[in-house]
Specification:
The chain is built from twelve helices and eleven strands. It is of the alpha/beta class.
Length: 331
């Protein structure tokens, strides 16, 4: 399994990308990592580590797309950027997956322009794996499509269902539509129409609407929503997690009794922190494309990049893309 990694995507690039690539090779998560970016800088930084040089290669790229760059403009004007070159390597068959911790909008635009949409897919979506009380769930879309029609949500439901089925090896995952109420008559016209279409579909295991309070309860496997709602929900959940730990830390430091209680509860806090840690999940998958593009968090460290490589390799081996393409081509 060959992974093309944008070495100049993250906020602290190229250090997390290099560290992640070396860890991935040492743990045998893939056969080869191609670091894409400035060859001089990458060669100098790689010389500080011990690794198998036959399994980590460098693809030179002269430009970098920054977090503040316009997505559409930068993709067209910076064709020799590390991000665009990484996706091109995937398109050319020199890599099985492309990964970047850079500008999400640019990654989406570059992947769409280079790899193209699957036949009959109306819009690609960004899908994330999120922890729940019981296990995991797939949430999509979380930012690619701000304005959606019911038909788009219906396709997201199919892609999310197949994603869960192939990634977690579970047949007929439960699919829910994020709404302001559980009843089918709740929500705007788009939500009502999407509910009707999903309920009538035999291709998914639709169990109805889900409210925001139940998002991480574990009662469903796939949550479908438009990109505006999904992005706000995802960032809210991340913010709540950070705030809870900040409040706990503040209270623990107030007196020795609280510190003693914290010491006794450390295994529980450690488990919760690990479960909510974004570095454990690697990145978000761009579904609906003729290829595999993975977007990681801009604040990714070496561990996060290693897990992004693990994640990308698992997706490539799962057969998800091939199955999804076959489904939509039969429409």
């Amino acid at each position: 399994m060959r992974v093309a990694l944008d070495a100049f995507g993250s906020d602290s690039a190229p250090h997390p990308e290099i560290e992640g690539a070396i860890l991935a090779i040492k743990e045998d998560l893939c056969q080869e990592v191609i670091l894409v970016g400035d060859q001089e800088i990458l060669s100098r930084e790689l010389s500080k580590y011990y690794f198998d040089p036959n399994r980590i290669k460098i693809e030179h790229a002269t430009e970098r797309i920054g977090m503040g760059d316009s997505a559409a403009v930068s993709v067209r004007s910076k064709k020799d950027s590390s991000m665009v070159r990484a996706i091109a390597l995937h398109k050319e068959g020199k890599a099985d997956v492309a990964i970047s911790a850079g500008n999400t909008g640019a990654m989406m635009s570059a992947s769409l322009l280079t790899l193209g949409r699957m036949k009959n897919v109306l819009r690609p979506a960004i899908a994330v794996v999120f922890p729940t009380q019981d296990s995991h769930e797939v949430i999509l879309d979380v930012g690619a499509n701000v304005d959606c029609a019911a038909e788009h949500l219906m396709q997201f439901a199919v892609m999310g269902s197949k994603y869960y089925e192939y990634f977690f090896k579970e047949k007929r995952p439960r699919v829910s539509l994020l709404n302001i109420g559980e009843e089918s008559a709740k929500g705007n016209q788009m939500s009502k129409e999407a509910h009707r279409m999903m309920a009538e579909s035999k291709d998914i295991n639709f169990i109805g609407n889900i409210e925001g309070k139940d998002v991480i309860s574990g009662i469903t496997d796939v949550i479908v929503c438009d990109g505006f709602v999904g992005n706000v929900m995802l960032k809210t959940l991340e913010g709540v997690g950070f705030s809870i730990f900040a409040i706990l830390k503040e209270q623990i430091n107030k007196d020795w009794v609280a510190k003693l209680g914290a010491m006794l509860s450390y295994p529980v806090y450690s488990y919760i922190k690990k479960k909510l840690d974004h570095t454990e999940y690697g990145g978000a998958l761009l579904v609906g494309l003729n290829g595999i593009s993975v977007v990681s968090h801009g604040r990714s460290n070496g561990k996060a990049m290693k897990n992004a490589i693990r994640f990308g390799a698992r997706i490539a081996e799962s057969g998800f893309v091939e199955s999804t393409r076959d489904y939509f081509e039969r429409l």
